Each structure stands twice: as structure tokens, then as C-alpha cells.
Amino acid sequence: MTMATPATNQRQTATGDVVLSxxxxxxxxxxxxxxxxxxxxLSFDLRAGETMAIVGESGSGKSVTSLAIMGLHPRTARVTxxxxxxxxxxxxxxxxxxxxxxxxxxxxxxxxxxxxxxPVYTIGDQIVEAIQTHHDVGRAHAWKRAVExxxxxxxxxxxxxxxxxxxxxxxxxxxxxxxxQAIANDPDVIIADEPTTALDVTIQAQVLEVLRxxxxxxxxxxxxxxxxxxxxxxxxxxxxxxxxxRPVEQGSVDDIxxxxxxxYTIGLLGAVPRLDASNAEPLATxxxxxxxxxxxxxxxxxxxxxxxxHAGCREEEPDLASVGPDHTAAxxxxxxxxxxxxxxxxxxxxxxxxDTVLASEPRDQRDTVLSLAGMKRHYPLMKGAVLRRRVxxxxxxDGIDLxxxxxxxxxxxxxxxxxxxxxxxxxLNLHAPTDGTIVVFGKDTSALSxxxxxxxxxxxxxxxxxxxxxxxxxxxxxxxxxxxxxxHGWSKSRIEARVMELLRTVGxxxxxxxxxxQHFSGGxxxxxxxxxALALEPELIVLDEPVSxxxxxxxxxxxxLLEELKRRLTLSYLFVAHDLxxxxxxxxxxxVMYLGKIVEIGTVxxxxxxxxxxxxxxxxxxxxxxxxxxxxxxxxxLLHGDLPSPASPPSGCTFRTRCPIFEGLxxxxxxxxxxxxxxxxxxxxxxxxxLDDVTTTTASVRSHGDPTVDHRVACYYARPxxxx
Length: 724
Known about the structure:
The protein contains 27 helices and 24 strands. With 724 residues, it is α/β, with parallel strands linked by helices.
């Protein structure tokens, strides 16, 4: 599109020129325990038009680096080394001098847009402020530029939405508005700090596409800070891997993904569940946790977690050394990794999962532990403070059918607001739904007495998304795990023995039973939550996003633990997640929800290899794969707009307002989609076609597929398409 005369940066930077250079950067904070060496000796050059990713676990120094470049650390922080922008040294500049650079030459996209945007000013006011702070232009000109920027980043009706406040935007729209604000003055460097964290996969795909568009429009260099290696594979030209505050490997994105030379990098790559891989093998796990960067012992800080470590690794920390053209690694064993072609399974071996118990029993012969038939949960939409009246209905869950068998994992996926969590709460409440039935262990929950519900809760437990919020910080973990046992009348001697057994089961030290939740890492806290869920030997565990807030290395350990426990104890899982790669690895069957309804359900192999509903295809295409070559050739389906409100769902097929197939139909072909929601019928057979083929071969409604195949889809024009 053609912009109005923009208030942009007048500096001319040729593609390939170095715009940002960091040399031997150190950032240290004072603390009671001693100096916290958050960044130790980071160096890199960033060229115009290039994207460099900084990856690593929490606490590795990624965000501290970005704040040091922006000059946003408190005065108590000690920043040394060199940071130059177009040859100008930034370290040592006053806040007033940095303020003239921030927003003009340097821009930052923060992780949480709701916290970064001022809630009392409109989106337009904040973009206008960013422009007028650096350029002497009138408000009318700046306002016109703000509208154009919102249009550029894909905000619908920009002339109207520019007057909206941040709370009136969805999460994805807020992130796009922040990108618009960041590129308002045509910066030379954009720092994106976890720009897609906590976003739905479809919104993530939109935001990443907007970020690519912004980079093309401005020609800026981008520093991408993320824990998502799939995003790194698709967005980055080069990668810096950080551990314990220092870079341990640097190189091109192909070098890092295909020929890594540092065990930590190899472990991170092996720990990522992949959308294009089966769940036959456990994920590689990095045992232990990253060290605190206070008074580090001599030697390589990765030694306690590295299976290749030897005596020399404990004596001296290796420097970054060249292991190839423009490829460096800090490891004494990098040559051995190269010559022996060591992979994650070689360095971090994991025992195969025992599947003999379940493999011998077909699914249709196992007991049904959970069954939903036509289950609905509607909430009244009320208005008025004194004289309240009902003005509508929120159709949170609007008639779903599913069943879960003993020893099985059913994944429930979909965007935020599709009804996943409401479905879980309906099951856990053991109450009668608005309509339909919920049958748990063969008993209708609407007919249970209070005592029967208490008895049933022994066999039904839950693991929550945020382990810190779900654990009482005032109680030691012994009491947290023991609480359900005491409620159900266990004796003190039995409780003590059971708690110690549970701690060992989930891989924690029984000697730490008297510690409090804040003394444990995020992964350890999630293990405590799992131990509590296992306390009463349940048959069914409901898991609500149990790994979404964890680092990829910790996530892999939790996924492996859940899979091992399922097989050893013959557990059943109802697993809710927005990461379809995690679901592919852990689930046996998957149900895709959209606006309170299931639109596709079947075995993981069927749904992932032959996705037939356009919504499922969009979800799968939005998940990045940690493989640069694959990412360069993939086609994505970008859904337009956000999820409609469950208080006013579209008529007919609820997905039609965002459906790429519906857009290409003739008026006659659209009639079924406009009149009624399609039923869940057997998925169509036939050849799997490419994503570009979104046309229908006939104007008639599709014929049903093979009813014996465990794969059903709710779409009149369903057709299996290749996504992976």
C-alpha cells in the first residue's frame, strides 16, 4: 500500500550493513547473595534486514540483553562492554539522549501488550505520541499515519478502531497495535521480546506475518527473543543460544538446527515435540535446572546437566571457538560431537515407553471412564446494576459428544474462547449441565448425591495450568500433597508413606518435603501438582494446559513423566492444550473445538495426517515446525479476524465467517452453510490434496466417508488436505 508522507527515520541504511554491534556485554545486578552476573560476555553484529534470534531457558539472560540495548535497566545495574548503533556508543548515554534514540532508531515489542500499552489513552493517541515525540508534525498528519499503520498490521476498520482503548482489543490485536507503534518512525532495529507468548496459534501466525510485513516495510534488523524454536526456524537468519548469562553457540539458523556443536543446543532441539513426528519415542530431557548466576563455580556451568562432561569441563569454562564458517560453540567436546555425529538421543538417552499393557487390549474393549452426550453449558447475559435483566445467552458449550476410554489420552484443542476450559469445569463440578449428560465412571453426574460426589473425586483429579497459582504458598509441599489424603480419612502413618512414595514417583527428593512451593522451579512445582493429583490413585486426570508456562526443556520432562505414569498406572487423561505439537506427542485421540462445538474428532494419526475441516487445517498450518528448510516451503492458512462472541454466534455453520472455503463458494453452494450447523459425520476419504486446492469439485453437499474409521468432521465441504 502507499503511505501518506510518513514521519520516518531519514537515515539511509543499505541491506547488509551492520546497524547494531554488541561487544563483550556484561550486565550485573547487586543482591544480598552477591553480584548477579545476568549477562557475561555477549557479542554479535546485526545487519540491516537480518533477523537474529536469542534463545535459551528462563534466566539465561535474553531479556536482560534486550533491556541493556534499549538502555532500560535501573541505575543500580552495572552495564559494561560496548553497544554501538551505526557506530555510536550507547553505553554511558544519559536517559535524555537514549530517549531520542528509543522509538526513532531503536524500537521494542514487549511480551505483554496489555501491560505495555497505557490503558487510559486510545491506541491512536499512543501511536500519535510516538510519532510527535520524534518529529515536528501536526496531529492531523500523525493521526492519519496512525490509521495507515493499523491498516498495515491488519487491524480491521482502522479509522474506527484507532479510537479504541487497549482493553477493547483482543490479545492478538493489542500485539499488532504494539507492532504498529514500534514501526511508526521507521526504526533501524526492532527488538521483539517473546512477541507471540500466550497467543493462540492462529493469532500467533497472524502476528508473525505482521512482523514480517513490518520488517519489509522498514528494512529494519530484528532481534527476536523467544523460547519457541519453531518460530526461530521460520523467522531467523542467525541464532544465539544463551546459557547462564553467556552465549554458548552462535551461527546461522541452518548451522544451529542441522549441525549443532553444543550439548545444550542439542538438548533443546531434542526436547521440542514436533508436529511432523509421531509420539513413538520419548522426548530428550535436560536433567536439573539452570544455575543461579551468583558466584558461579569454576568450569562450564552446564556440567551438572551434561552427560558428556569430564574432569576438564569442571576446571575451566570454554570460550566460544570456531567450529565452522561463522559458527562458534563453547564446548570442550564440540569436535567429538562433530566426528561421532552425536544427536540428542545419543547424548540424552531416554528409556523407551512400555506399551505392553495397553497394546494388548483394543480400544472398544476398554471401559469408558468419561462420556459426554449433547452436553451444553449456557450462561445468562445480564445487564443493569440495580434492576438486572437478562439480555442474552452465552453459548459457552453448545452440544458436544465425546468419550474417553481407560488408559487413553484425549486431547482437546482450539482457540481461547472455544469452550475447552468450560468443558473441563463442567466435568470437574459433577453437576448437571444446561442440557445433555455427563457420565463419569458409568454414573450420570446430575443424579449424584453429595457423598457420591466426594467418593467420585477420589478417582477424578486435576492438574492446573499455573503451578504456582494452584499451590498454597503458605503450606510446605508435604501438606499440599497430603491434604486430599486427610480429607478422605487416611491415617497419619499411611499419609507420610504415600507422600514420600509420590515424591519419588514424580522425580522429586523426599528430603525436600518440608520446603515451600517458592523454593522450587516451575517444572518442579508442576511435578508437585502432578503428585497431588495422583495422591488418591485416580483413574481419570484432567489436565488444563499443564506445560504451556514451562521452558521447552522442562516441558519435555513433564510430558515424558505424564506418558510414563499413564502407562504404568493405566491412567486416562483429558488433556487441554493450544499447542498441537504437544497434543500429537501425548494424545491418542484429539477433538477440535470451535465456538462451543466439536468440528473434528478422531485418532491423532487420522486428524493430523488427513485434516478435513478447514479450521483444523488452519490450526495445524499455524504451528511452526523446528526445521528451517520445512518452514521455508510451508504454506500457511491465515484466518481473518478473531473468534466471534459466544453470545452471538453466526447462524448456520459457526465457522463460515472465517472459512477460506466459504469465501470461494457460489451463492448456491453457500446455502447449506448458512442454514444449519453440519453434523459430525465420518470424514471423507479420497486423496489428500494440497492447501492451494480449496475449491469444491461439486456444488452438492459432500458424501460421507468410511464409518468404521475413527475420524468425524462437521463440514459440508470437508476434504483432506496436506498441511505438514
